[in-house]
Amino acid sequence: MDQQYTSALLGRAVDEFAKLPGIGRKTAMRLVLHTLRMEEDAVDGFCSAISRLRHEVRYCKVCHNISDSEVCALCASPHRDKSLICVVENVQDVMAIEATMQYRGLYHVLGGVISPMDGVGPGELQIQSLVDRVEQTDVKEVILALSSTMEGDTTNFFISKRLSKVLADEKRGLKLSVLARGLSINDELQYTDEATLGRSLVNRVPFVA
Amino acid sequence: MDQQYTSALLGRAVDEFAKLPGIGRKTAMRLVLHTLRMEEDAVDGFCSAISRLRHEVRYCKVCHNISDSEVCALCASPHRDKSLICVVENVQDVMAIEATMQYRGLYHVLGGVISPMDGVGPGELQIQSLVDRVEQTDVKEVILALSSTMEGDTTNFFISKRLSKVLADEKRGLKLSVLARGLSINDELQYTDEATLGRSLVNRVPFVA
What we know:
2 copies of one chain form a homodimer. By secondary structure, chain A is α/β, with parallel strands linked by helices. Chain A has 9 helices and 6 strands. The first copy, chain A, has helices at 8-18, 25-37, 40-56, 73-76, 91-100, 127-136, 150-162, 164-168, 194-202, and strands at 58-59, 66-67, 81-88, 105-109, 141-144, 175-178. A 4-stranded parallel β-sheet of chain A has the order 4-3-5-6. A two-stranded antiparallel sheet of chain A has the order 1-2. In chain A, strand 3, helix 5 and strand 4 form a beta-alpha-beta unit. The model of chain A has no long low-confidence stretch (mean pLDDT 91).
């Protein structure tokens, strides 16, 4: 009774919006009233985009990124460096790295990190397919770009173990690297946590003017 | 190019979410990825609720509130006091007043306030239907519950002029009232603006222990 809608249709639409993460009932109400002011065509376009995505979504059979076809646009592109694989947790991470404009290789989307607390073991992740991919293609470097957390580090360690046979093959010369840890750009030294600061000291690099 | 989606379906869904007010591209992406994790049925339920609302929405022919039928649940209710009409700007205001649990009368939703700057004149609002409603029914009090802004005050003044003939009829005894202006609950005096503080002094009420 504390939220009364004079219309069941309205109440249901608000309920649906409020189920989305980070959207409370007030925001849901604002969004619903916005859709009422939209053209009917625009609302249909909105609904069909969401519905089509959910029903027609596919994942690239090579890198497991979201894709419209069997192989995603990145894996299929002739402009990407196929000797590099960047291992990431999810689709957002692919976009975050693409946004840096600093990477021209391929990706491998794990679908998460190993987290026993959340019931996520190596079997739930695309680790076997990564190992297969490394063994079956002419990859020169695998870049581990997981979160700098306990779970990320555990997953990095697990992957390095699974790749140990290929890594030991000197003729193959596969490199395994990990994103640098250190000060964020614009960080002030006095406010940087000691673990990060310590790591940035240990991994210091030659100064380039 | 600064935001690259490997899937056109994904990009389109993000675009659609990002068109909603207060939702940027990052939030849109988060919402889209959430819909991908939802059951297909749940996504269908979401889409159909939004779509049905937009296509099937109706407005109460008496008070112009959102309604599922010709006359809304509030106007049709035998438990509401039909001698009171509370004039509000929009549907959210009806819900805000309902949430106070202090009002058992009916409403009249204007659909906005007079605002020449935004091109909203009296003709765009449900003012004529309010006058008709007051003249044709046995209403005892009209409560003006518009925003306490220049536009709200202008609209209050305009409505009072349009109702002047009925208000002058002593036998009819129609009252026209307006929401009290004064300190917000929990406001500290020193931080209250002088216009509000001045009005709260002029309109002071007997103290009740």
